[in-house]
Specification:
Pfam families: DUF927 (PF06048). This is DUF927 domain-containing protein. The chain is an alpha/beta fold. It has 3 domains: about 1-245, no CATH class; about 255-535, 3-Layer(aba) Sandwich (Rossmann fold), CATH 3.40.50; about 540-640, no CATH class. Helix content is about 35%, strand content about 20%. The chain contains 21 helices and 23 strands. The chain has a 5-stranded antiparallel β-sheet, covered by helices on one side. α8 (about 270-285) packs across α18 and α10 (about 325-335) packs parallel to α11. The longest helix is centred in the C-terminal third of the chain and has 22 residues, at about 485-505.
Length: about 650
């Protein structure tokens, strides 16, 4: 691309005489990146001009203010001629034109004349403050600081891979954040950024949440890092999307406590929802990956209002997602909200065939392994997340409707909690007349007061020195949470963790609730879950129930006496096996195919382990859990199963 002197007239709005008139020179500060040979980059200022120093925030507005040359009362100081070729960033009007990043070049005219200087405006004021990379020395980037014509200074940790190709994605993000860019000089912008080699380096956090640094822990959010001042300067959030920030805020913490927190008091379901939203930051501190509840109730009873109140901990009503998404999509959302809370409304919109696998993935904190374009394995998404969901049906009912069999592991990863209280989802309406008015009032208030409690809670957690995992264990051992049932114990521990989050926030003076209200809400939720579930079955119990049901359903039609005369035995269609009467009771000899059918999706080895541990394997041969039986002159290997007579495991 060739640049002629007239090319700059439209950029600056100056004629040629104004452009070179020293009287029009403006005082500015320049950040120089010079090229000695147009190929190698150097951060050394070869013009002997004082280097650009990042200005304090309180001075940024003055330094970055755009001043028209004819409006200044005093003549500006004269700028020193820059070294050419070089890049320089100016914070005010200069003889070159409006504030911004410039390229000062020179071209060799035809013949033996002296090189002719030219100046190109590239974009608004822009500087590169630091180089970034993650803890593994991957995900390199640049911490950019820039200013739009109508706003203050902004920062963005830009991944370097956005410079690939023409850099269009990178420019799109900068434009979206307010930086003005010369469309004819985008290659110079790419070149400037590619040459930047700042001395300062900071860690690039590619996910929200806790990060362990040498010297302590910090909590990284898109636009702020919570922790000590010293540690916070050493890490920043880096994303391809500079403007994407789920953590919006409005009002103040005090206004949230007055207008929303106070109304949650005496409403166990609202307290439980807020406590769930606060539980995310505790997961890493208590060595867990997830904790989740699913509010189940009739339509328009206040469930969604409870979700909106919970969302106000971290952001506005837009913080709520919907179940109407693919499993891969929810993995990406969970990774973006790590160590906070994933709030999902209306489980009925989810695909019942996929939701079971999605619950496992969200609860395990690891996404699917995927291959890159060249066949190498990409690092899967990872997260720790609290989950708050709602719907008119339980998880089990939604899966069953789609022909899927719910599993115990899914039931304890997302606990079904009945959302039926005195007034819909509420117990106390405070000064409102009815449940509808109360819900509408809360919906209005959360739009004006949100996004403060979560960060304030983390600021206290950064200083927390108590063993929170031990506190969870201590509360779980209380009589109101204690249980001998292993899966009920897991459910109790998750609800205790949620209750502890609410209690800590109250102790820190953030909620305005009474001491003990959050744990009381967790206890009410556990009782409701137990009643709702009728007690959850382990996989071991589910296997025994399934095998017993299969035998009771088909024992007369698909089985016959193994010792009976075939001529006098009724014809058996779709045979599942045989039976043999013994003094201890009838033994059913199942074929391999029949056993798989009876297990309803459980692995055969897992099923045999459950049958064996329950004492249902009646006969065995050597080290095998099956026997060879002579039938009609042929020896067949069958599984001898005798269900117990006590009926301990009922469906």
């Amino acid at each position: 691309m060739s640049w002629e002197p007239d090319d700059n007239l439209d950029l600056f709005g100056l004629d040629e005489s104004d452009k070179h008139d020293p009287a029009q020179n403006d005082v500015s500060t320049g950040a120089m990146v010079s090229n000695r040979d147009n190929h190698a980059a150097s951060s050394v200022d070869t013009t002997r001009t004082p280097p650009f120093t990042p200005c304090p925030q309180d001075e940024a507005t003055t330094l970055g203010q755009e001043v028209e040359p004819d409006s200044m009362d005093t003549p500006p100081a004269k700028l020193r001629e820059p070294f050419r070729p070089a890049f320089a960033s100016y914070l005010t009007h200069t003889r070159y034109g409006v504030p911004g990043l410039y390229f000062h070049g020179q071209r060799q005219p035809r013949g033996d004349g002296d090189p002719e200087p030219y100046d190109v405006w590239i974009c608004g004021p822009l500087e590169c403050s630091a180089a970034t990379h993650d803890e593994r020395n991957d995900n390199h980037g640049l911490l950019l600081r820039f200013k739009s014509p109508y706003g203050g200074w902004r920062e963005w940790a830009m991944p370097l891979h956005l410079l690939k190709g023409s850099g269009e994605e990178m420019r799109g993000e900068l434009l979206n954040m307010g930086l003005r860019i010369n469309p004819d000089a985008y290659k110079l912008l790419n070149k400037y950024l590619a040459q930047c080699l700042p001395d300062d380096r900071v860690i690039a956090a590619t996910r929200v949440g806790w990060h362990q640094l040498e010297g302590g822990r910090v909590f990284v959010m898109p636009r702020r890092t919570l922790g000590s001042v010293e540690l916070s300067r050493r890490i920043t959030f880096q994303s391809e999307y500079g403007t994407h920030d789920d953590y919006a805020h409005a009002g103040t913490l005090a206004s949230w406590r007055e207008h929303i927190g106070s109304l949650c008091s005496d409403n166990p379901l609202l307290i439980l929802s807020v406590s769930t939203a606060l539980a995310g930051p505790l997961l890493d501190m208590t060595h867990r990956k997830s904790a989740g509840i699913h509010l189940v109730g009739d339509s328009s009873n206040g469930k969604t209002t409870a979700l909106e109140v919970a969302a106000s901990i971290w952001g506005g009503p837009e913080f709520i997602r919907t179940w109407r998404a693919t499993g891969n999509g929810l993995e990406g959302v969970a990774a973006a909200l790590s160590d906070t809370c994933l709030i999902l409304d209306e489980i009925g919109e989810a695909d019942g065939r996929e939701i079971g696998a999605t619950i496992y993935a969200l609860g395990n904190g690891t996404g699917k392994a995927r291959a890159s374009r060249n066949g190498t394995a990409r690092r899967p998404h990872r997260w720790r997340i609290a989950i708050l969901s709602s719907g008119e049906r339980t998880l089990a009912a939604h899966m069953s409707e789609a022909g899927q069999r719910p599993k115990a592991g899914q039931a304890v990863r997302l606990l079904d909690i009945p959302a039926k209280r005195k007034y819909g989802a509420f117990d106390c309406l405070h000064h409102l007349s009815d449940g509808r008015a109360f819900a509408d009032h809360l919906k209005s208030e959360v739009t004006h007061h949100h996004g403060h409690l979560g960060p304030a809670f983390i600021e206290h957690l950064v200083k927390e020195r108590r063993d929170l995992a031990a506190m969870v264990s201590k509360f779980t051992d209380l009589p109101k949470f204690a249980t001998d049932h292993p899966l009920q114990g897991r459910a109790a521990k998750a609800l205790v963790l949620i209750g502890l989050a609410g209690e800590l926030a109250t102790e820190y003076g953030l909620t305005g609730w009474r001491e003990g209200e959050a744990l009381d809400a967790a206890e009410i939720a556990l009782k409701g879950w137990r009643t709702f579930q009728g007690g959850v079955q382990t996989e071991h119990e589910q296997i025994l129930v399934s095998v017993r049901a299969f035998i009771e359903r088909h024992g007369d039609s698909r089985f016959s006496d193994v010792d009976g005369d075939p001529r006098q035995t009724h014809t058996v269609h779709n045979r599942a096996g045989y039976w043999r009467d013994q003094p201890e009771g009838r033994v059913y000899l199942l074929t391999n195919e029949a056993l798989k059918e009876a297990l309803r999706g459980f692995d055969s080895r897992r099923g045999l382990d459950a049958l064996d541990s329950a004492g249902w394997i009646a006969e065995r041969e050597g080290g095998k859990r099956s026997v060879r039986v002579q039938i009609n002159g042929k020896r067949s290997r069958l599984y001898a199963v005798r269900p117990d007579e006590g009926g301990e495991y009922e469906s």
